[in-house]
Structures
1.
Amino acid sequence: MRLIFLGTGGTYPSMKRGVTSIAVQLRSEVLLLDCGECTQRQLMGSSVSFMKISRILISHLHADHFLGLPGLIQSMSLNGREDKLVVLGPEGTADMVESIMNLGHFDCGYEVVSQELAPGDYIDAGTYGITAANADHTVPSLAYSIEERTRLGRFSLDKALALGIQPGPLYSRLQCGETVEHKGIMVHPEHVIGEPRRGRKVVYTGDTRKCSSVTDLARAADVLIHDATFDSSLEEQAVKYGHSTARQAAEVAVEAGVGRLFLVHISPRYDDSSRLTAEAVEVFAKSMVPDELSEYVIDLPD
Amino acid sequence: MRLIFLGTGGTYPSMKRGVTSIAVQLRSEVLLLDCGECTQRQLMGSSVSFMKISRILISHLHADHFLGLPGLIQSMSLNGREDKLVVLGPEGTADMVESIMNLGHFDCGYEVVSQELAPGDYIDAGTYGITAANADHTVPSLAYSIEERTRLGRFSLDKALALGIQPGPLYSRLQCGETVEHKGIMVHPEHVIGEPRRGRKVVYTGDTRKCSSVTDLARAADVLIHDATFDSSLEEQAVKYGHSTARQAAEVAVEAGVGRLFLVHISPRYDDSSRLTAEAVEVFAKSMVPDELSEYVIDLPD
């Protein structure tokens, strides 16, 4: 699982930071978290194949979070895409998608489906699931968790050998959950395979004030990507405009017990984001403002 | 008069070239020729004040020519713009503008007016005029000329002195077109002021095949900015998709007798545009592919 920070700025772009979009590279597909203007150009400069994007998760319908959609959708069509694309988002998403599909002269070569979600909705996507939760912004806004399914426990070579089973076809059958017979003894998978191991979990807040629904969603996530539009000296503004300070984001990271915090939606006023990093790190050491086009690999937990 | 090449690529962006937008800096206002996605970010990195944009001229309603509008319009509003903004374009422009003003949650703090033009339409903008002409593309498409008004002729100090008039208030009055009396002689402005001098003229084709309506519009322009999507080996494709080759653009430049040719709407297939430049220069020496964010000053003609 790999995160690619395509755009980490908020409100409008600066030369330093594009507006919000983060790609999540899964085993054989890519999810996009928001899709601000210029996302397609950022994708061209990244290691992500933009044709592999299966779902785009829109947090809310402010322009800096979705204006990259029409260009990206059209470029995928120009490049011969045939696979369905799903755009997920809060109420209003279906209307927005319909509008952007009808801008100017354009016939799409594949199906674009919109799906409106409410807080608490869960999508089972096979190897992973998507959960939507309420974010606390000035307009209806969703935070998302992406969580891989629980994996099989670790196979214990030692235990298998102690039972007298040598490496070979029986190992595969046990790993597939089958009970096998070995020299007259029935060996069950749980004799040689450990506890199921959890998958990886990423939570993205979109634009939000510090709030408990996001903290709950982020519980024990490997990575939390949180709104950090302002530094603490502008906390009043953060509350007024439905955003968080870097310190508040770090407080959520601590309360939710996450592994790592990325601060995004940085206001264009910050040419230098070190002030934001500094105040977050004081609260939660593993905090950082990702550079544009930087990548982060989330290893499988043991 | 200054041109700023914000985006010079066609169809979809590459890392090297953004899609089309060119700013024309006039004395106290800026015109934008097309407004592809990412134009606002490019403006942030240029010397142009994006708040000074008075009119945006859209050539046609393919996404790579107008998808930068909603983001730019919204960012102007977030930055406190109060002045009216006019979006000009071919049929369909009014619908497109209405759609983009209604995307997501957005209240615009100033007036955005759309104005649909037909080939031959002329807009008198005071110190300059805009003429629309038919371009030959796959959808309704306009080429534009921007031409400054004729300026007063040059004041001849020699002639004034020969008439015995010394530098002073009479000079200003003559330059304002007044007939003055000097030592009993009536001096008319034409006695000391030369022939009116033409203003500067820029022509932008948008997407087009080589065609006579564009050549006619471009007659004697200081600068022609012409579609040059392909090189000559792809001439069939150029015809099929309603574009020009670099050579064809140069032929138009020669036939129209322009001062300088800029080749734009470069296909993303060209990492290196030297092939396009080379074939244009063979036909018309003053041809070039402008670099992104490069600027070109058009001096006043004598």
2.
Amino acid sequence: MCILLGGLMTMKTILIYSGGVDSTVLLYHLLADGYQVRCLGINYGQRHQRELDAAAEICRQLNVEYRIADLSAVRSLLSGSALTDDVAVPQGPYDTESMKQTVVPNRNMIMLSVAIGWAVRLKFDHVAYAAHAGDHAVYPDCRPEFAEAMDKAASLCDWHKVRIIRPFIDMTKTDIIRKGADLKVPFDKTWSCYMGGRVHCGKCGTCIERREAFKSAGVTDPTVYGD
Amino acid sequence: MCILLGGLMTMKTILIYSGGVDSTVLLYHLLADGYQVRCLGINYGQRHQRELDAAAEICRQLNVEYRIADLSAVRSLLSGSALTDDVAVPQGPYDTESMKQTVVPNRNMIMLSVAIGWAVRLKFDHVAYAAHAGDHAVYPDCRPEFAEAMDKAASLCDWHKVRIIRPFIDMTKTDIIRKGADLKVPFDKTWSCYMGGRVHCGKCGTCIERREAFKSAGVTDPTVYGD
């Protein structure tokens, strides 16, 4: 898939990159497959410096360009206090995944649209993100039908066609960690926790998911947890 | 279309609103049809204060909420000087429409995704914008196929379905001005010019288009032009 015409063409991909386990394994996977990759981090104002540093450090070591789209203003529009309508306020650290959804409605479409814009600008072929098999049960915008509609829109938004790829869509998080181990991904440098501490808290939703996936993959978890 | 169940349900719509002729006529049209409307302006950092003031003033007179999404940071990511790739630099005031396209790649998708996010947040039914019959010959993201793909994505991005409507898609700018005259739109308060002067320059692409449309519609043009 990566090399066409006997190696003459390198596929070029924007990767939506959080510095977490899934997107870091995808970064290593794309590079191993010969893709030219640039990474885009999306910051809605709620991300901790620790996460952004993790992503930046991994990209620096790989010599991959990493840019951050600062969408704090979108967050304040879509969930700021100036909007007075009733919505459920996110509750506590244990429900951080649903918190992310609540804080910025339609976040995946907004994220993809900015990444597609960058791809159009650079005349890149693809936007990639690390959606996986466990996601779509929970979030409407992780459903395959949503991704297909966005892929169609991406191919039509400019005379230069961009396609959306989700190479891990049929894999579980456990599969992804096994693949990462094969690719010698530096898991200790990735960051999942939403609590913004010096080390992973070990207790929030994403920490629990991270721990369990390493365990079920049978891969040594190098993460330092605070609990 | 606006009133269902014998007047019990009012359709609620986010209108992507620039303060120009087309979207102002659409605002009046939606209100006349009984829609509940909130207006969203998108500012990529290139809009002049004059335009934003025009939109705000019209909304204030109509008692319609008007919010601005500040996406300056997106513009600096997608077309900032930190990106060193060669692109055609927009040339001169006469080509402002192509300039808009060049300045922010994929602007329509980004704009729609933010509007859809707001609609999801408010549990509104629609996002409306004033695409018309003349647009799609020029811009890839004004093609019906693009709008259909985005409509599909909008209906899937959340458990609450949002649909995209383009009530003027089969109308020319001339038709729109005739409709605006019927609806008593205060054309003198709308703003089209991209030059940021005190009055419309009369010479840029959008001023020329505005002038010609009033003329061919047979509607008195109240605009003060500088030339």
